[in-house]
Amino acid sequence: MTDRYAVIGNPIEQSKSPLIHTAFAQVTGQDIEYTKVLGPLGGFAQAVDAFRAAGGRGMNVTAPFKLDAFAYATDLAPSAQMAGAVNAMKFEGDPVYAENFDGVGLVRDVVHNLGCALRGRRVLVLGAGGATRGALLPMLAEQPAELVIANRTVAKAEELAALGRQHQSGQVPLQGLGYAQLLGRPFDVVFNATSASLTAELPPLPDSVYAAGALAYDLTYGKGLTPFLQHAQRAGVQRLHDGVGMLAEQAAEAFAWWRGVRPDTRAVIAQLTVPLV
Ligand code: NDP
User: Which residues contact ligand 1 via a Cβ below 6 A?
Assistant: First the structure.
């Protein structure tokens, strides 16, 4: 019997998850059906209940339901606990197992696909929302030379840095700052984990933030050269990337968790890549 999976969000039309998981199923020979569910605002639990009652085996969760899924789950993996949010669920009888693969997907894309080790590098993350929170432990596990979180609302950056310090087993220096405090501090890898690119805005970044040979990575994907990537390019950065690989890698993690086989992501990344021009 074909196993059923879906992504739930609102809106949901834009989601690439069905395309990605259907491609993964084809290359791995898995018999699954993967659809989109438009979750009613305020009606997340009922929509998931209905999907489970119809035999659904697992779901990806996208905006605005990642916190609802956190509340709905019965068994939260450490990644979901740390992120305070859930992006994948697995249904096996009564328990609802929940994970958050965004952070591990991001790190895998940078380290594995882009060949940019974070170990020993000075890493800057812009933004202190859900994506940064989820990426914190996977990034710290790579043992960068330092990890700085900069945010418009400075208190949120400080809070995340304190959370990271509590949870990390290593001794990575970790700081939460405002943008003005970045002046004169160069970094080897700069991630834009703000949602500014979605509205074509640019966080107030000094040019001096990029060290020679730096890599700039915008977690937003499918928008071409965002204002953040344009700014990096003007500052002389040559290694520019968006979050399409992160999207594919978090999906591959979920697929492996559900099906026990990890698909190769290269074809999907190539298919979904919007040129950075
Ligand atoms: P949140 O809404 O949780 O956080 C948004 C963050 O962006 C906050 O820190 C906010 O600052 C900051 N911000 C918003 N607008 C601006 C601005 N104009 N200037 C400076 N800072 C700004 O979002 P998420 O963490 O969930 O997502 C962040 C980005 O990551 C989104 O673009 C999303 O699309 C992308 N993403 C990509 C994924 C992928 O697979 N590639 C997966 C998950 C997310 P403040 O706290 O001051 O309000």
Answer: 102, 127-132, 151-153, 156, 193-198, 201, 203, 219-221, 243, 246-247, 250
Burial of 158 (0-12, 13-18, 19+ CB in 10 A): middle
**Average pLDDT in the 264-268 region?**
97
In degrees and rounded to multiples of 5, residue 53 shows phi and psi of: -60, -30
Closest atom, ligand 1, to C-alpha of 243: 41
How confident is the model over 107-127, as a mean pLDDT? 98
Distance 219 CA to ligand 1 centre (A): 9
Q: What pLDDT band is residue 104 in, cutting at 50, 70 and 90?
A: very high
Q: Are 15 and 36 spatial neighbours (Cβ–Cβ below 8 Å)?
A: yes
Query: Mean pLDDT, the chain, as a whole number?
Result: 97
Distance of CA 165 to the CA centre of its chain: 21
Instruction: State residue 178's pLDDT score.
Output: 98
Per DSSP, the residues of 82-130 read HHTS-SEEEESSS-EEEE--HHHHHHHIIIIIS----TT-EEEEE--SH
